Amino acid sequence: MNAPTPPPKKRWIGQSVTRLEDLPLVTGRGRYAAAVSFPHQLYMRVVRSNYAHGRIVAIDATAARAAPGCVAVWTGVDVAHIPPIEFRPTKVQGLEPYRQHVLAQGVVRYVGEPVAVVFARDAYQAEDIADLVEVEIEPLPVIMSALETPGEFAPGLPSEPTIVRKEFGDLRAAFHDAHAVLELELKIGRHSGVPMETRGAIARYDALRDVLELHGATKRPHPNRDMIARLLGRSPSSVHCYECHIGGGFGVRGELYPEDILVCAAALTLGRPVKWIEDRRENLMACNHSREQIHRVRAAIDADGRVLGFDDEFFHDQGAYVRTHGTRVADGTASTLLGPYLVPAFRAVGHYRLTNKTPAATYRSPGRFESTFVHERVMDAIAAKLGLDPVEVRRRNLIPHAQMPYQRPMTGLGSPVVLDSGDYAAHLDKVLARVGWDELRAKVTRRREAGEAVGLGLAYFLEKSGQGPLEGVRLTVDASGAVELVTAAASLGQGVETSLAQICADGLGVDYRTVRVIHGRTDVIDYGFGANAARVTIMVGSATHIAALKLREKALAIAAEDFLEATPDMLDIIDGRITRTDRADAPTVTLAQIAQALAPAKAAAKGRAPGLTTEGVFECTQSAFPFGAHVAVVNIDRATGGVCVERYLASFDIGVAINPMLVKGQIAGSMVQGLGGALFEEFIYDADGQPLAVTFADYMLPTMSVVPDLEILLTEDAPSPLNPLGIKGGGESAITAVGAVIAAAIDDALATPGAVRQLPVTPQRLRTLLKAGIALPA
Amino acid sequence: MSNEIDITLEINGAQYPLRVEARRTLADTLREECGLTGTNSGCEHGVCGSCTVLIDDEPVRACLMFAVQAQGRQLRTVEGLAQADGQLHPLQQAFIDHHALQCGFCTPGFLMLAVSALERNPQIGDDELREVLSSNLCRCTGYQNILKAVRAAAEHMRAPAAKPA
Amino acid sequence: MKPGQFTYHAPRTVEEAVALLGEHGGSDGRIIAGGQSLVPTMALRLAQPAHLVDINGVAGLDRIEVIDGELVIGACVRHSAFERVVVDGPLGVLLKQVVHHIAHYPIRTRGTFCGSIAHADPASEWCLLTATLGARLRARSVRGERLLTEPGFFEGMMATALAPDELLLETRLPLLSADTRAGFNEFNRRPGDFAIAMALAVYRLQDGVIVEPRLGVGAVEAQPRRITAAEALLDGQPPTPQLFAEAAALAAQAVEPLDQNAETADYKRDVVRAVVARALAGAEGSHE
After folding, report:
1. Confidence (pTM)
2. Which domains are assigned to chain C?
3. Which class does domain A22-30+467-619 fall in?
4. Chain B residues within 8 A of C192 when measuring between CB atoms
5. Chain B residues with beta carbon closer than 8 angstroms to that of C104
6. Which 8-state DSSP code applies to residue A29?
7. What pLDDT is stored for residue A536 in this prediction?
8. Rounded Cα distance, C119 and C116, in Å
9. What pLDDT does residue A188 have?
10. Residue closest to A331 by CA, chosen among A431, A232, A410
11. Rounded Cα distance, A608 and A484, in Å
């Protein structure tokens, strides 16, 4: 038995190498869904409800069908046989009746709900034809708030399908023994991912292979494929999903929507490829919303500011239907309300309620932007109540390092909540040192005393990354030495190819630029669980690492046996060439030659399996928990309520950074999204349920001019023990704490603790706070 | 189609004879009729800037023009930035070097916007640069690397072509 | 979001353009110049003109000239033309100061000054400027040419005294004397957005007091207008911060802001107060 090969040197992991993905994207050769076209394709255009709630009295498609270029018009009756869109497996009972059909079946429940579809040869024409479809709706009363007493979703079905509950410890005793009890009501506004590319789906039926193709699918190609197959009555292997270049996902792209099923059904029925490209107005009213929750939280504290009991009742505004995530966002909120803090007694009661708004689901850091706002507002409230320094309050409540890994006595998304690694207090110290906290605190206070409405805030957060159950990859070196890594990963634009190539390259011993990474396809790999929950680098990366080490071992064994007079432990692979480590002048052999030696006939002659190829599987059902803290300085224009973010620091401990530049890119991007949720973005509705933010004029994304220079502190102090490389996921990294830190900084600028209870803090809301007799500095 | 008009567009120095409806936007025409899919359509109502192209060297939102209006003008799109031999424009290289793109959807619009800004004023100051770059939306990068990349490219483009030995 | 069908016309002369408008003007036909406001409404199908008269190819509409004490701005002059000083004196400086608030540069390379005037969006900076300084506007139709004046031109939200088949040929702004002080201020959520409120303050100082004050407020009501009560307060007074604050408070009371979901009337009054005070301060500081 050969001695185990030593672990490879890290040549690529940890390096900020440039991305493999970039060249086509900077030269205009990106192939996003809108660029996918097939001969004789039809364009689909969706006719959507103009009412937030109503009974469909009649749909008159006569004029539409008679219009030039109209190939078909479908209404609810034409697709009534297609089952409603499923949600992920869940232990929660009774959600099935709340699913959405691909076209409304007699009732509409949100403005934007698909009611009919038209098919034409040209997108402009399709829109003309869609305008001719007359939909008569009898309006019904609307429910526009999750705080309202639940009504009826349908006869016999309440608009509160379930309540999420989590509890541990002796809450009664905690509140009984408390030195003080704090109560807060907090609101997070409805907003969402809003990628720059709208959704798109192109379906084609390949009669030659009896395969239904869906192009534009992403995020979770295999589970999506399986659902499409079930809904349309096909075998999973006869459905292939193909990823295009993706213009951002953020959780909202890549779940299955009615439009995805409709293009597939149409391709099968109409016998022609069917293309659907969403426009922006549709996107803002039909793509998943998120975040909207109201929390009524009570905290029992001791005289030192430690939380003895945390009791939160919250109201989750799910919108009109249960979408593909079921209750996961509400569950995720409940299970992360305690963040990085040590709390002996806890209860969360989450009212999962349907309203007549666009349905909601996950958006980057789902449930955690919300729960972080809540727990950090509580920390700040403790500080105010007891006259303590807010930083000190965090210190007193953070889980001590000695208790890691720390298990909370509850489940989150069905799994135990075990915080894997991290010295939270030490990290806090690093952040404070980096920002020069004491001096900064003094400086801001002096400026405020001199009359400026300037404030400093801090927020600590715990993130969650990686989600099982497993991922597998196949790694092959071909006869030319080219390396191909086939994964079930999905790219959302985050640089997944580069990170995986770096991991593969270090494991195998090649240049990362020689690794081709295949992702987003269901026809070349059988299973996969997608790109969400910041899981790709962890899950697929770990599987890649395992495969790379296995392939390296295989190559070295053959090199030793067939080519070089050595044992594997004397050999190393550098840039694809196998060399002896003990002698400089010895003969070498390339991976290409090894691959050639494993050509089928030669391999069979020696009783070996053909091909220099291997598979790697990584199983892990636990999440890894990165963490960090944000610090912000804001300056308020008292007269208008305008907020200027003068300074911002975001820290993040990622365990191990495969590519620091890419991680920092995720931090920068997610921070700005967080800023959007803190100050700018909101899906507002009027009393009748009409959405008011349906263009970019009204739904305000942050622009460069409102973003501060971002300081990033990226640390690798707490590798995860859960995977061979020690990595945690960075995909959701800095969005989580932005709402909380901006709120804290604004409170400080107003010299009014607890002033901010609602996000986004629009100028008007801030003016209201200023005017409501709140004390201002002289 | 009842309303089709014959036009010829000059794009990146090449002639594209086309027949399009008057209502066909320049953005859609570039993508569909001309096969130049580098210019992306992010909102179709002139706010996001993903569709920015150059018309006589000035940045224009292609979704706010009809193709028929672009006849007789010199159009430049992202496909024309690199040299014929594949050598990248300094801005393109800078975007790669500084990780100024993630999903890449807004990238062509930013590249054309930045090209015009730097060509118009190679000495452009930082404040003015930020103001110009604030014209376009990005959802992935958080903007800071885009600014870094454009600054770096501006420096590179200002540097003398031949360096002393 | 594709526009509906329309017949496209590209006249080469004003006569042709006017004749086409005569034939198709009204709800049936629209002029397109910059298109930066029109095309989005067409994309959203809020506007579906059957005819589009493109005046970008009409000769002679792109002039900026000083004639008899007025700055004449032709129909096709782009916003971006004002990014350099087009005329000596405070007017040129003011135009250059204001133009940077109009959307973003790529919009300004296409959008036109006169297009904004004819479109009459309440949040248009040029409309505020025109309403505050006063203007003469030359328009032509098949019935002939006429000179309109502001005040009297803006009639409401997106409504002007132009007939549906009338082409606005040029806007004439009065030149400002060398000792004129002018200040502009607007507040919006993000630079480049439509303003929540905007103000333009113009006056001269004579013997240490304000004379000929003009104070215009825009974006909060259906159309921009001069706030005469605030002007009366300023007239003949020394320009102190307290005076400016009083004038700002008066202006905030005088306006009747449109109440909207995103911004209430009360909030808009607060912002009016801020922008008026800042515009006045800017005017005071504008004179070297």
Report:
1. 0.96
2. 7-54 (3.30.43.10), 64-174 (3.30.465.10), 181-284 (3.30.390.50)
3. alpha beta
4. 134-135
5. 49, 132, 134-135
6. -
7. 76
8. 5
9. 98
10. A410
11. 21
